[in-house]
Input
Amino acid sequence: MVVADAQAKGKGRLNRVWQSPPAANLYVSIILRPEIEAAAAPQLTLVAGVAVAEILSQYCPEGVTIKWPNDILIHGKKICGILTEMKSSPAGVDFIILGIGININMTRDDFEPSLRDTATSLQVETGDIINRLDVICTLFNSLEKWYRLFLRRGFPGVRDAWLRYADILGRPIRVVFREDTQTGVVMGIDDDGTIVMKGADGTTQRVIAGDVYLLKE
Output
């Protein structure tokens, strides 16, 4: 595990910029060597999402949700991003780097103006300055629990917890991937972590990539 106090080039999914000021947040990279198929590696993003949502719920008992595939929100605002990168060979997975960034003690004014209405932190949500070491220790304990369960049972062992935090089952969504947009109602999530939804034409579709947005019912 590598924990940084700040990042000069913090990045998120699709090379988006992640604000990483010093002495404020949690930036951690964890090297994992699971004995899994390379195709299963993206599921670790979902596993980590459950672990993060679990510990954030201790600070904010209401309003913590997972946004597929890699964001954690509080009251609809992003507080955490998760990124996995893998090195593999014909023999299988060599290692996976699991990166997690959690906004802890940033104030609303610390965020860039363009992010103030869409991003948040534990300090903003609770009104308190949070001990970052406490968050780190709690997060590692939660990650270890869910990671071990994943190694034993695969994603199905984590799916029910993920669905509770995601709160998307049976709800209409819009999926945006590059220039393409799809809409449908979520029917469930597969063993491989892909979303299964029913389109407006009644056909079943699998969402393997993109940004997911809940629609008003």
